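Progress note, project year one: complex with adenosine-5'-triphosphate.
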Amino acid sequence: MSKLVIENVGKVFPGQHGAEPTRALMPTTLTVADNDFIAILGPSGCGKSTLLRIVGGLESASEGRVMLDGAAVAGPGADRGFVFQSYTLFPWLTVQQNIAFGLREKGLPEAERLKIARDWAGRVGLSGFVDHFPKQLSGGMQQRTAIARALANDPKILLLDEPFGALDNQTRSLMQEMLLGIWERERKTVLFVTHDIEEAIFVGSRVVVMSARPGRIKADIPVELPHPRPYTIKTSREFVALKERLVEEIRAEVVAAGP
Ligand SMILES: Nc1ncnc2c1ncn2[C@@H]1O[C@H](COP(=O)(O)OP(=O)(O)OP(=O)(O)O)[C@@H](O)[C@H]1O
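Model obtained:
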């Protein structure tokens, strides 16, 4: 059964101060199976974030509808876990308290919230940092915390918008492995927006390529690399062939998008 159905979802932003409206997203249809890991690639401004924000209920669609487990999405909710590129932790809370934060809404007693948070801190490699505050953490550790916070709530779907975009290459690579490891163990349904072709192939079970603005889906390519995927898979023949194909797809769109 489909976990998520995005049905002819489009977005037009009204023009500000008499300007023309902006079409950010052409009517787009995408069906996501339970436990799928969809990487969404596309040139800057093609509407990737807009699509993700509509699924997250942070933005309303101008047309079409989003169904999650058969129910229409009508706003934000704890059944969707969001992680953004910029660090969004509460600076006055520790790592453990940040991870536990969303669990309040579930009405769990504090001891249980903190236990779940400690467990998730361990799963993202932050066991020794539960009492640290965000300003004491590197960017990578802050994003580990944000991912743990999103997952601690046990959402139906995880929505990641360039979560590793601000990290250096080495950290980014470690974060990809961590996220993929969690997915391989826990089997979550994930929508993951990225600019990075290699990242999309490494983590994704499908790569969806969007066209230049206003975006629509121009290719939907299964990644048939086996799991578990060690980072060395990035130099395998299959990986390199898929990367070459995607470079061509994206290049055409970046050229079409213009400077
Ligand atoms: N609130 C808004 N009001 C008006 N226009 C907007 C708004 N949000 C986004 N847009 C426009 O919609 C288009 C799509 O934006 P969006 O951020 O979804 O693209 P993106 O593919 O995620 O880009 P990037 O990869 O650069 O983050 C862009 O032209 C953007 O300027």
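The CA atoms of residues 6 and 66 lie 5 Å apart.
Residues 13, 22, 24, 42, 44-50, 213 surround adenosine-5'-triphosphate (CB under 6 Å).
No further modelling is planned for this target in the current period.
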